[in-house]
Amino acid sequence: MHTVKIQLFIPTCPWLEIIRLILFIYMGLLVCQSTLAGCRGGSWTGSAVAISLPGSITVNNPQNGPLNTPLSDWYVLSSNSIVYCPQGGNIALIPTALQQMSVTSSTDISYSEAGLTYTVFPTNTPGIGYILSSTVLAGGIAYSTYPLTSSSAQTIAQGNVFTDVSVNITVKVRLIKTGILLSNTYQLAQQTLASYAVSTNWAGGSGSVYITGTSLSMQNATCSTSTSDIPVSLPTVTPTQFPTLSSTAGSTPFSIVLNCPSRMNVYMTLTDNSNPAQTSRVICAASGSTAQGLGIQVTRNGTAIALGPDSSLSGNTNQFQVGSRLSGIVSIPLNASYIRTGTVTAGTLQAKATFTMSYQ
Prior knowledge:
The protein is mainly beta. It folds into two domains: 43-218, Immunoglobulin-like (Sandwich), CATH 2.60.40.1410; 224-359, Fimbrial-type adhesion domain (Immunoglobulin-like, Sandwich). Helices cover 6% and strands 52% of the residues. It is built from one helix and 19 strands. The strands form four sheets. Strands 1, 3, 6, 7, 8, 9, 11 and 12 form an eight-stranded mixed sheet that branches. Strands 14, 15, 16, 17, 18 and 19 form a six-stranded antiparallel sheet that branches. A hairpin with a 2-residue loop joins strand 4 (110-113) and strand 5. The protein starts with 13 loop residues before the first helix and ends with a strand. Mean pLDDT is 80; it is low at 1-44 and 81-90.
């Protein structure tokens, strides 16, 4: 008995094998992209992170100090939980951007420090604003410091993501004076300051930073005066002592004495009671005076003082600095003289002026 072996030959197609190989690689690519895509579809875990302020902040706030000045130190948050891609990586590089934006409209105030210009944003307490900056370390690359400038998206770091990327943002915030603060205490409630977003051509995510609430204790220190009225009696003079316009006579010294409890910058404005709006260097004769052609001029260190409105606001017209970082008993030496303003006739002359102090 003979056994017959039959062998079946099934021809193979080399093109079919190539197609199978291509399909295998393509499916493998899809699997890789599905499991390793950086910052894709919810894998980015943004959160709200706090910048903790002290429970109470003491502010040395000169009552009439200028606006757009710091009310606090810088407070810093450094955290990689603000922006972090816990899963990531792609077969291809994925363009990725990190952006910051404010959550409130800006004020019209800007503040400059260390070569950077900041936009000042309002807090929920009138008269108090804040500035903020972010410095990014992403994938071992350090980026420049970016002040927060707008409620529009502002790119603060960008690059191509290939694998897991840990992003660390150092956020700094500082409180800024934006209005006159006359109360002794202000409550600053918790407030979100800025939001951060990471985006790729796959998807994106976002997080934010906020400040904890705090209480601001304002040290509105002022100097006191020994008396609110300072009479100055000038000597009797004759018309012949005033040969020309603006000639003076009868110079009489007097002083304004202050007691300043702490070091402060002291400014003063001298105002004509008879005409508070005028800004010349002559105090007009008050009602009841009978002499004509004369006024009173006050000088300091030999220079006539220009008059200004009765206001303690910083930058008031003709406001002048008495001294900086003054403390204790402070004497301001001045001189009063008659000054010719027209044709001089005999009589009595009385003039009144007020001095308004400003602490900046």
